[in-house]
Amino acid sequence: MHLTMKPAQLLPVRRLLILMLLSGALQAPVQASAASVTATPLLLAEHYAENHDPAEYLVSEKLDGVRAYWDGTCLRFRSGRIIPAPVWFTAALPALALDGELWMGRRSFERLSAAVRRQEPVEAEWKDIVYHLYELPGGEGSFSDRLARLQAIAAQAAVPWLQVLPQVRVSDQATLKRKLAQVVRDGGEGLMLHRADAPWQTGRSDVLLKMKPQHDAEAVVIAYEEGRGKYHGMLGALVVATPEGRRFRLGTGFTDAQRRAPPSIGSTITYRYRELTGTGLPRFASFLRVRETE
Question: Mind listing the domains of the chain with CATH numbers?
């Protein structure tokens, strides 16, 4: 879709010029196309804060990959849609649920995202993908117990594309910050902390924490603002709404291609920010990507 601004298409919304009638842009939310698919209930992370004791957690690198749920017969995106993986890739997986991340390495998200969404998987691409396990859905005992079982599952499979994400103990805040700094210097996104004694659960919880130099969050696209200057005729900014109903303008982080073909109205995007204002709005928010909902 090429974004072309026309005066008759613009409506004022809180002093913003909002484009609401785009050719092909006003469409049902991305999720609507998956109405018949049930999203998989999984554990979701809260943001790390210094009131958490890192000694209570097992720490791993936060992979910039695609989360993948193995239901015992096929791989699925978080939305519940099937990931069209090659038969050889899934043949070694057990007949029980697994949770993890498909990953090609640091700074490889775009290539990975394209590979796992092809209806006909490309063998050469999938040979570069590793399924990193980090949870055993429905498993008994503590996270440490479930982690030990995952390691046994990976060892039994004995294939290089099935691995358990390394988890380590960190004794204090200073050590944790040094580890974060090292991961970021090496090109990683950040860290994940999972309470070692936590039983299996779903939903958003502080038994799982994400720690990054910047925070990230999700919002729904509700409108467009027309670009100015060199962006005339393209997207200037997205107007988005958080799950709590707060609206704000998101004007940075886009490529020219994304400004010409912006995320659709109703789609969910991920953005980064430094901190929240006193009213709960993100400071220095920047577009990251459209959330993977397939």
Answer: 7-34+215-290 (2.40.50.140), 43-201 (3.30.470.30)
